[in-house]
Amino acid sequence: MVISILGGLILLLLLMGTPLKPIRVVGQGLIKILIGALLLFFLNAFGTQFDVHVPINLMTSAVSGFLGIPGLFALVAIQFWVM
Fold first, then answer.
1. What is the C-alpha to C-alpha distance for residues 18 and 68, in angstroms, rounded to an integer?
2. How far is 38 from 13, CA to CA, in rounded Å?
3. Measured between alpha carbons, how far is 24 from 53 in angstroms, rounded to an integer?
4. Rg of the chain taking only CA atoms, in angstroms
5. pLDDT for residue 19 is more than 80
6. Helices 20-47, 58-67: crossing angle, 10 deg rounding
7. What string of DSSP letters covers the chain?
8. CA neighbor of 74 nearest in space, from 61, 64, 62
């Protein structure tokens, strides 16, 4: 019974196609998080001269990825304010 239901769902997806909109949104979000991690890496690499270090984790990568350069400056300001 389970195999026939799964087979029917696979056949339905093959005939209709997959919903591309949710997959595209998730993919764009992951790319922005990766770009944010890359920005943080360069900030930490060049920021050692100015004693700036922001840890690279999922939250900081998401903030810097989705907000861009202003988000990166906000993370640096928060880091200085906390320290």
1. 31
2. 36
3. 33
4. 20
5. no
6. 100
7. -HHHHHHHHHHHHHHH---HHHHHHHHHHHHHHHHHHHHHHHHHHHHGGGT-----SHHHHHHHHHH-HHHHHHHHHHHHHH-
8. 64
Residue 63 corresponds to which tokens in the numbers above? 């903030």
pLDDT of residue 12: 83
Q: Say how far residue 9 (Cα) sits from the centre of its chain.
A: 31
Q: Are 74 and 67 in contact (CB under 8 A)?
A: yes
pLDDT digits (tens, 9 = 90+) for 21-72: 777 888 899 999 999 999 999 999 999 998 899 999 999 999 999 999 999 9
With 0.90 as the threshold, say if the pTM is over it.
no
